[in-house]
Amino acid sequence: MKISIATNISNADLPRIKNIIPHWLEVFDENLGELLLIYDNNELSGRIKQLHKQQYTSEDILGQLNELTKIDPRVKVLNLDYSELEVISRKWFKKGSPVRCQNGSPIYTFLYAIDKAKYDIMLKCDCDIVTYENGFTNEAIKLLDQYDIVSPPRNPLPGHTVSSRGFFINRKKLYGSKLPIVLPKLSLIQIAARIYRRQDIFDSKKYSLYFSLERAINDAIDKGVLTHTQIDKKFGNTLHIISNGEANDPIMTEVVNNFKQGKWPKEQEEFSMDYSKPLWEKFLNK
Q1: Spatial contact of 184 and 215, defined as CB atoms under 8 Å apart
Q2: Nearest alpha carbon to residue 187 among 117, 81, 102
Q3: What is the 3 state secondary structure string of the chain?
Q4: Is pLDDT above 70 for 191?
Q5: In Å, how far are 30, 181, 208, 255, 270 from 97, measured between CA atoms?
Q6: Which is more confidently placed, 134 or 99?
Q7: Mean pLDDT confidence for 140-160
Q8: Quick one: pLDDT band at residue 66, thresholds 50, 70, 90?
């Protein structure tokens, strides 16, 4: 069965476009119907801006995205269209139409990507995820008959049920049936704390009064509105590459090539879903 895979692209993501996304075309080849790359040219904000300080020009980003479309016709690049913000937000949330959450993580870009997908079964995935695919896509397709949200296999990620780094859904099953859900807002105490720290949360271009899409989905799962399961790691694994420096590191090609074949440091299993350069340097220098 063919699926859509969608990811969001910002002006911080040039190393990920070059060094991470291309391997998806190989590992998901059997099931991949389309790869949607949703580009938001607006400035980053909040914690996300601090995490990804190095920004690239839109010309550099679009040039690299267009190179991917030449490699594979299934790759489609869409510019984020803000004119549909209210309409698409209402499909997901009972109230609120934020572009980003209170820490700067995208909300609307995720929703736009999901809305524009061609296939009902889709994987929403961050562009910094390296993948070992050993059948987990087909397993996700089967599990979506029973569950609303299915997470790919991954190493420990404390405190998370669903992570916005990656999850499968059946859009046809969710839209108008289990959705819309509640998008939680900051409390008055939390707002006051941000004002005290001189964060101008009322500037919608910088801050938001809402928590993340991830938080909204997990709240809905806790309340029994949505159902969720995670795929067993016998079907594969996923690795999160956090920073630009890591994604642009000369060893990243070796990291991706090894991981997609099911090879990684044993210690990475216990460490986290997040990439550890010291563990990989030791592993590659054996």
Answers
A1: yes
A2: 102
A3: CCEEEEEEECCCCHHHHHHCCHHHHHHCCCCEEEEEEEECCCCCCHHHHHHCCCCCCHHHHHHHHHHHHHHCCCEEEEECCHHHHHHHHHHHECCCCCCECCCCCECHHHHHHHHHCCCCEEEEECCCEEEEECCHHHHHHHHCCCCCEEECCCCCCCCCCCCCCEEEEEHHHHCCCCCCECCCECCHHHHHHHHHCCCCCCCCCCCCCECCHHHHHHHHHHCCCCCEEECCHHHEEEEECCCHHHHCCCCHHHHHHHHCCCCCCHHHHHHCCECCHHHHHHHHCC
A4: no
A5: 36, 13, 10, 38, 38
A6: 134
A7: 87
A8: very high
Close Cβ partners of 177 (under 8 Å, ≥ 6 residues apart): none
The residues that bridge with 131 in the sheet, in sequence order, are: 238
Cβ–Cβ under 8 Å, residues 33 and 149? no
**Alpha carbon distance 4, 98 (integer Å):** 24
Cis bond upstream, residue 180 (ω within 30):
yes
Question: Could you tell me the two tokens for 39?
Answer: 């580009």
CA–CA gap between residue 1 and residue 164 (Å, rounded): 23
d(CA 37, CA 6): 6
Whole-model pTM: value is 0.90
Quick one: tokens of 89?
A: 């937000």
